[in-house]
Prior knowledge:
It is built from eight helices and no strands. The chain is mostly helical. Among the domains are: 3-72, no CATH class; 81-128. The longest helix is centred in the middle third of the chain and has 20 residues, at 53-72. The chain is elongated, with a radius of gyration of 34 Å. The termini are far apart.
Amino acid sequence: MADSIFSAVDIERLFEExxxxxxxxxxxxxxxxxxxxxxxxxxxxxxLLRISPVSISNWLRVYKESGLEGVKALNYRKKWGELSAHxxxxxxxxxxxxxxxxxxxxxxxxxxTGLDRKYNxxxxxxxxxxxxxxxxxxxxxxxxxxxxxxxxxxSLNQGWKMQKMGKEKCFS
Length: 172
């Protein structure tokens, strides 16, 4: 079925490179294309190589569009793209001046590098660099220190009186 799209030179290259390529995923792609060039059905190739028949169709489409070099290309997303080039500078800055929020980190990254990044990517970048949130305690809004001291004195005096009366377990 698909063997008419393969040239004799490409079939020979598929045969030679299917086990020699350094990346295992590319080896699997080349093997699938080689078996397809030999007239094997996609369903059988998928069972043999433990892959989806859709993957074989996608690799054939890539082969038709850009040849063997397109099939060999690994187009995985990079972790941070342009942000990784500035990672040492940003790590040093953030360790000296930790950002209070991710939004503040976004502004600092834009100011230092000129790169505009979204919330999730900056959040992940901060986690990778070792920065994390610090949980702070709640500060009471209207604390009356004199009333607190009076309460402590009153409760301590009352507890002392109860102990004298023979009730030792009042503060257990």
